[in-house]
Amino acid sequence: GQRAQRIARCQVSRLDNHDGAGRVFAQCRKRHIEALAATAHAADWPCFRGNPAMTGVAPAAFTDTPKLAWSYNAGSSVQSTAAIWGGAVYLGTQGGQLLCLGLNDGKLRWWFKARGPLSASPCVSGGRVFVGDETGGFYAVNAASGKLVWQFDTGDKIMSSATAVDGTVLVGCYDFNLYCFRADTGKKLWACRTEA
């Protein structure tokens, strides 16, 4: 009840990378909650373009006059979009850090260090954050603690965002493979080699 009443419709955006600051902004507005159960997840945006179908459509309208709610200096540039889930914002940096920030206050909750730059957008599913780096590492990180759950090393860099569906997670790689893993254990279920 209390959590749902505090939900704000938020849109996370980033500064143009021309300034190199890597600051992340949340533009929020409060909205009257009429159906608590129906709106409890309305602010969630767990993966690139919002859902596995990649519709890119938010379930509610945004204000015409957004106001800056907070900013965070990530220490290096941010090229990917953020994932939002359960009151947290997850994003990767070119410095190789996966960051978890509070959606309402922008405070750092935890960070995880990958081997290389994180250009792909994170994907949140089943209590884990999935993201690949430019050295070919693919990581499943506990969404609450930032602890590594499992890792898989591919043959080349990962620039595409993962998609989680029905207990699996899929990710494309520059080694020309589309990989499918069990989301809970990281067991590789299959890899499909592509022509491009």
What's a concise summary of this model?
The chain contains 2 helices and 15 strands.
Descriptive account of the structure:
The chain is mostly beta strands and 196 residues long. 4% of the residues lie in helices and 42% in strands. The protein has helices at residues 2-5, 36-39; strands spanning 8-14, 23-30, 67-73, 83-85, 88-92, 97-102, 108-113, 123-125, 128-132, 137-142, 148-153, 163-165, 168-172, 177-182, 188-193. The strands form 4 sheets. A 4-stranded antiparallel beta sheet has the order 4-5-6-7, with no helix packed on it. β4 (83-85) and β5 (88-92) form a beta hairpin. The longest helix is centred in the first third of the chain and has 4 residues, at 2-5.
Helix content: under 10%
Find the structural class using helix and strand composition. Answer: mainly beta
Can you list the strand order of the major beta sheet? 4-5-6-7
User: Based on DSSP secondary structure assignment, what is the total number of beta strands?
Assistant: 15
Q: What's the oligomerization state?
A: single chain
Global Rg: 17 Å
**What portion of residues belong to β-strands?**
35-45%
Query: Major β-sheet, in short?
Result: 4 strands, antiparallel
Low-confidence stretches: 1-41
End-to-end C-alpha gap: 49 Å
Q: SSE string, helix = H, strand = E?
A: HEEHEEEEEEEEEEEEE
